[in-house]
């Protein structure tokens, strides 16, 4: 069952299904794609801080920080 990235638990791995291109700004979409956020990529949720409003996930050897608000627009399938 698909869900959004912000709904994963720490340590969960998931496959990116889609990015909501109608909601995320084009500049952010470009950055996400350049960092490896594309459909089929596998990511792992490393940390989440609701107080700071961000999360850290890894794709390959890269760790990427995202705002929780933006991660709500990344659809994933939990492995």
Number of extended strands:
6
End-to-end CA span: 10 Å
DSSP helical segment count: 2
Extract low-pLDDT stretches. none
Query: What is the helix fraction of residues, given as a range?
Result: 10-25%
- Mean pLDDT across the residues is 94
Order of helices and strands: EEHEEEHE
| Beta-strand content bin | 35-45%
**Helix/strand/pairing category:** alpha+beta
Global outline: globular
Largest sheet: 6 strands, antiparallel
Rg over C-alpha atoms, rounded to the nearest angstrom = 11 Å
* Strand order in the largest sheet: 1-6-2-3-4-5
Describe the structure.
- The longest helix has 9 residues.
- The protein has a six-stranded antiparallel β-sheet.
- The chain is an alpha+beta fold and 79 residues long.
- The chain has two helices and six strands.
- The protein is globular, with a radius of gyration of 11 Å.
- A hairpin with a 2-residue loop joins strand 4 and strand 5.
- The model has no long low-confidence stretch (mean pLDDT 94).
